[in-house]
Each structure stands twice: as structure tokens, then as C-alpha cells.
Specification:
alpha+beta, Glucose Permease (Domain IIA), 11-stranded antiparallel beta sheet, elongated
Length: 368
């Protein structure tokens, strides 16, 4: 019995340790499995993030490639346009020369007719009375024949000159049409390039998480647009700098605050309070180069007017225009929205030359 008791005691002493070791092994195995599972999950996350980063990188590379192609295409198209414009200039110069030649021909023809016509009338009335000899008749006949020949030659010269003027005007018309077509293609590509640059800027902003203040972001947008060097059809006849003190106000309303760069913070435009639902109008002919939200300004429309002048219309509730659209003076751009400064419907309006704000009140008409 003693031996059996001892054996039972040994079993009782060993068994709890064995069970404890088994429990600890199970716990360790469970922990290992959990860590393996977490490692697999993290690896999948890393793989997914890498995939997303690759997709973003590929998208940015595609946009950058398109930007490079468009830049090259625009440079080639602008070279063609410059050549067309040179030909237009030469055609106009040729036209002035032809008109000058026309005036000379008319003057010489007038002199010949003044000499010929009285003699012709005299001969018709007198039927060569007073001609005493054949020699006298021959001399008079030859003299008149020379004048007739000279007059006829001058008339031929006038006809050729007239035909050349007509041909020159037709060439000017064709060159102008060709220039308009080329300019439209250039601006279309510039619109696409601008869209790509905006997309590139937004994607880079997401990746880098770059924080910018309102002024630097607006300056960056205007710098992007300025780099494109847009040429507009309206620039041929409508030069923004010549319309100082005559521009219409963008909305009918009341002036809340004016331009003041010395204020803290600087006030770079006009705050205009107005009624709900009022249309905002373009102050000059131009091209819509930005129609999107802009931090600190709500929904913003920017119009490029040529010669490095821009107008900006902020806090719009809706817009009627699209990027790349050319607009007329007084054309509606959108509707006023809620403007925090007026605590109601209103518009924030700026004018800029290059990227620098200029005082709109020096450009708008005296009365609002």
C-alpha cells in the first residue's frame, strides 16, 4: 500500500504541472496565431496602400505626360499662329501700298481725261474744221491716238490694281479666318492644359497635405493661368487698359467695404451687399479660366480679360458658365450666394493685374 500511495502522490504532483504546461502552450499558440493574423492584415494593408500609391503615381505620371505633350503642341501651334499673324501684317501693308497706287492712278487718269475730253468734244463739234493740210490732220490724229493709248493703258493699270486689291482683301479674310481657327485650337489645348494643371495641383495637394493660405493659393492659380499666355479674339478690338473708370459694376447693391491693402488683414477687393437671387455679371469681355471652390472664397469664377488683367467673383451660389468659355461684357456668370461679411447675400469682387490686386473703384463707373 505504501508503494501505491507513493505512486499516486507522484502522479498527483506531476499532473497539474503537465496540465499547466499544456494550457500555457495553448495560450502561446493562440497568441502566435493572432500575431500571424495581424501581420497578414498589416501586409494586406501595406499592399493595398502601395497599390493606391502606385495608382496615384501612375495617374500623376499620365497627367504630367499629357501636360508635356500639350505644352509642345501649343508651342508648335503658336509658331504657326505667329507666322499667320506676320502674313496678316504683310497683307495689310500690301493693301496700303495698293491703295496708294490706286490714288496715283486715279490722279494720273484724271489728268489725261482733263486733257483729252475738251479736244474730243471740240473735234466732235467741229468735225476737224480748220485742218488745213493732211500733215496737220496726221499730227492731230497721232497726238489724240497717243493720249487715247495712254488713257487706255492707265485704265488697264487701274483695272489690274483693282483686281489686286480685291485679291488682297480676300487673302486678308482667309488669313484672319485661319488665325481665328488656329487661336481657337490653341485656346482649346490651353483649356485642357489648365484643367490638367488644376488636377495635378489637387492630387499633389492630397499627397503632400500641403497647407496654403488663401492669397498664396490664388496667386498659384493666377500664376498657372499666366504661364499659358492666352490670346483672346476680343483683344483685337477691346483693350482692357483703355476702359478705366468705365467698367460696369458686377452687381447692383451697396458697398460694404472697399479696397485697402494697409488694413490687417489686407482687403484686396470690394465687399458688396445685395438682394437674394441677383445675377453676377462679367465687367468686361474675356475668358473663364477658373470655375470652382476656393478655400476662403466659396465658389469662385475668375475671368481673364487679356493683357494680364483678371476679375474675380466670389461666394456664388451657382454659375452659368464653364471653364474655357469666352464671355461678353455684362454677360451673367452666376448668382450671388451667402457672403459671411454681409451676413446675407453678397459678392466679393477683385481686379488683378498679373497676380497683384488693383483697386476696382479706380476702374468701375462712379455710380453703383
Amino acid at each position: 500500500m505504501n508503494k501505491i500511495s507513493i505512486l499516486i502522490s507522484i502522479i498527483l504532483l506531476v499532473l497539474p504541472g503537465t496540465l499547466l504546461a499544456q494550457d500555457q502552450g495553448d495560450i502561446i499558440n493562440e497568441n502566435l496565431q493572432y500575431e500571424h493574423q495581424r501581420a497578414d492584415e498589416n501586409e494586406n494593408k501595406v499592399r493595398e496602400l502601395t497599390k493606391q500609391a502606385g495608382q496615384i503615381s501612375t495617374r500623376l505620371s499620365d497627367i504630367e505626360h499629357d501636360v508635356r505633350l500639350l505644352k509642345g503642341k501649343i508651342i508648335s501651334q503658336e509658331k504657326i499662329l505667329n507666322e499667320i499673324q506676320k502674313n496678316e501684317k504683310k497683307a495689310r501693308k500690301d493693301h496700303f501700298a495698293l491703295e496708294k497706287e490706286k490714288q496715283r492712278i486715279i490722279l494720273e487718269l484724271s489728268g489725261l481725261m482733263q486733257a483729252l475730253w475738251p479736244v474730243h468734244l471740240q473735234n466732235v463739234r467741229a468735225r476737224f474744221k480748220g485742218v488745213e493740210s493732211w500733215d496737220m490732220f496726221d499730227r492731230r490724229f497721232n497726238w489724240l491716238a497717243d493720249i487715247y493709248d495712254a488713257t487706255n493703258g492707265k485704265l488697264t493699270e487701274a483695272r489690274i490694281n483693282s483686281e489686286r486689291i480685291i485679291a488682297n482683301l480676300e487673302r486678308q479674310r482667309l488669313l484672319e479666318k485661319e488665325a481665328e481657327t488656329q487661336l481657337a485650337q490653341i485656346n482649346k489645348n490651353k483649356d485642357r492644359l489648365l484643367g490638367n494643371k488644376y488636377s495635378l495641383r489637387k492630387n499633389l495637394k492630397k499627397i503632400r497635405r500641403k497647407r496654403q493660405d488663401v492669397e498664396s493659393e490664388l496667386s498659384e492659380i493666377l500664376s498657372t493661368i499666366e504661364d499659358l499666355r492666352y490670346q483672346l479674339q476680343s483683344q483685337k478690338t477691346k483693350r482692357f487698359p483703355l476702359y478705366k473708370h468705365t467698367l460696369p459694376w458686377p452687381v447692383k447693391g451697396r458697398l460694404i467695404s472697399g479696397f485697402n491693402l494697409r488694413a490687417r488683414p489686407p482687403v484686396r477687393g470690394l465687399a458688396i451687399g445685395t438682394n437674394e437671387g441677383v445675377d453676377v455679371q462679367s465687367v468686361f469681355w474675356g475668358k473663364v479660366v477658373h470655375n470652382d471652390t476656393l478655400r476662403g472664397f466659396g465658389h469662385v469664377v475668375i475671368v481673364y480679360h487679356g493683357f494680364d488683367y483678371y476679375s474675380l467673383y466670389a461666394y456664388l451660389s451657382e454659375t452659368y458658365v464653364r471653364n474655357g468659355q469666352e464671355v461678353e461684357k455684362d454677360e451673367p456668370l452666376g448668382v450671388v450666394g451667402f457672403y459671411p461679411k454681409t451676413n446675407g447675400p453678397g459678392l466679393y469682387f477683385e481686379l488683378r493685374f498679373h497676380q497683384k490686386p488693383i483697386n476696382p473703384k479706380l476702374w468701375l463707373t462712379a455710380l453703383n
